Amino acid sequence: MPKPPGTLVVKWRDLAEEGYLYAEISRMYPEYSVDQIRHYCLGHTGRHLPGPIQRVDRWYGSNVWLRGSNSPHAELTEVQARKVLDDWDEEVGRWGTPGAEWARRLKVSPSTIYMLRRGETWQHLEHPNQGRKRRKRSRKRK
């Protein structure tokens, strides 16, 4: 993903200060991910740039009505999330497609895919493949 110019970051911060959600800002600037915009608005990246820095706890608690694709922060649809989770290959004991490849296809950051697979996001799906870890290869003894 391209690095945004400082003037754009300031604009994002102003929009966030006005109450726009990071997902809404990302829709206005589709060449940048929600994660990237959030990073700059929270000051994790580009702290030296002017503009208001957002508080980390801007929204408190967990709202069950805003889970999954209903969340204003959702980068995936439920269909996309299930498709990624269904990619587990039971015979081999690992994911069929690398997370970075899914991220490229779905135009999201790789961390979005990895958090989905680990079960950190979309937990309400209770998909059996969330939290799966690659099976370690056993070394054959000679």
Write the SSE topology.
Layout: H1 6-17, H2 22-28, H3 34-42, H4 78-85, E1 88-89, E2 94-95, H5 99-106, H6 110-118
Antiparallel strand pairs: 1-2
Helix pairs in contact: 1-3, 2-3, 5-6
Description:
The chain is an all-alpha fold and 142 residues long. It folds into two domains: 1-57; 66-125. The chain has helices spanning 6-17, 22-28, 34-42, 78-85, 99-106, 110-118, and strands spanning 88-89, 94-95. A two-stranded antiparallel sheet has the order 1-2. Helix 1 (6-17) packs across helix 3 (34-42). Residues 61-65 have low confidence and may be disordered.
Give the count of structural domains: 2
Give the strand order, joined by hyphens, for the main sheet: 1-2
Total DSSP E strands = 2
Q: Could you spell the SSE succession in H and E letters?
A: HHHHEEHH
Into which percent range does the helicity of residues fall?
Answer: 25-40%
Number of helices: 6
Portion in beta strands: under 5%
Mean pLDDT: 82
Question: What ranges have pLDDT less than 50 throughout 5 or more consecutive residues?
Answer: 61-65
Largest sheet geometry: 2 strands, antiparallel
The N- to C-terminal Cα distance equals: 47 Å
Structural class: mainly alpha
Please give the radius of gyration in angstroms: 18 Å
Note the overall shape: elongated
What are the defining features of this structure?
single chain, 142 residues, mainly alpha, 6 helices
Gist of the model:
This protein is 37% helix and 3% strand. With 142 residues, the chain is an all-alpha fold.
